[in-house]
């Protein structure tokens, strides 16, 4: 068994021991859809515009899963490792510290994919909605959303001076991004400039592209490009500023 495989196995066990992380990935998205989706299905919801779209809630739930893993779990774990000098100690062993970063990303990515599968199944059977109609577009949008948000999470981990700071910066960024995605106020009711920013923000573009593919349409290339550019820029900045101690 290689060093990377061992690290992934250890990080997976540590992840599964955290009830809060499991709640973020599996329970919260399904709860969100049940609370807001069942009234919509029964015809008692008063939503209009963006919120009335059939695929809005499922795509928001998936984006919520990715966003919480990227902005809550990932930066906090890496911040703790740096604060406790785990990364520095690894530098004195044959196991390179970079492998721990790779293991963290792999574990969170796998959990995000599992969360997406569970959410898609819940959508199908609890809300009686079809599976994603444009599967290639759905996979592309999902992976670009993951890459974009994980790059932002790694940048937070790189810049945060402590685990407590990382734990604060993630939510401080997450909730404005959630607002821009249209979670509380549909973007078609926002001022034009704010709505435009929301369209190309990490969570907003993720919600829109996943939702479009889920409905069978092609995701907007401008939004896919925004996700890709943010992913590359965030990863480059995280690599540039990351500190091992």
From TrEMBL:
<feature type="transmembrane region" description="Helical">
    <location>
        <begin position="165"/>
        <end position="185"/>
    </location>
</feature>
<comment type="similarity">
    <text>Belongs to the ABC-2 integral membrane protein family.</text>
</comment>
<keyword id="KW-1133">Transmembrane helix</keyword>
<keyword id="KW-0812">Transmembrane</keyword>
<dbReference type="GO" id="GO:0046677">
    <property type="term" value="P:response to antibiotic"/>
</dbReference>
<keyword id="KW-0813">Transport</keyword>
<dbReference type="GO" id="GO:0140359">
    <property type="term" value="F:ABC-type transporter activity"/>
</dbReference>
<keyword id="KW-0472">Membrane</keyword>
<keyword id="KW-0046">Antibiotic resistance</keyword>
<feature type="transmembrane region" description="Helical">
    <location>
        <begin position="139"/>
        <end position="159"/>
    </location>
</feature>
<feature type="transmembrane region" description="Helical">
    <location>
        <begin position="221"/>
        <end position="242"/>
    </location>
</feature>
<feature type="transmembrane region" description="Helical">
    <location>
        <begin position="101"/>
        <end position="127"/>
    </location>
</feature>
<dbReference type="Pfam" id="PF01061">
    <property type="entry name" value="ABC2_membrane"/>
</dbReference>
<keyword id="KW-1003">Cell membrane</keyword>
<dbReference type="InterPro" id="IPR013525">
    <property type="entry name" value="ABC2_TM"/>
</dbReference>
<protein>
    <recommendedName>
        <fullName>Transport permease protein</fullName>
    </recommendedName>
</protein>
<dbReference type="InterPro" id="IPR047817">
    <property type="entry name" value="ABC2_TM_bact-type"/>
</dbReference>
<feature type="domain" description="ABC transmembrane type-2">
    <location>
        <begin position="20"/>
        <end position="245"/>
    </location>
</feature>
<feature type="transmembrane region" description="Helical">
    <location>
        <begin position="20"/>
        <end position="39"/>
    </location>
</feature>
<dbReference type="GO" id="GO:0043190">
    <property type="term" value="C:ATP-binding cassette (ABC) transporter complex"/>
</dbReference>
<feature type="transmembrane region" description="Helical">
    <location>
        <begin position="60"/>
        <end position="81"/>
    </location>
</feature>
<dbReference type="InterPro" id="IPR052902">
    <property type="entry name" value="ABC-2_transporter"/>
</dbReference>
<dbReference type="InterPro" id="IPR000412">
    <property type="entry name" value="ABC_2_transport"/>
</dbReference>
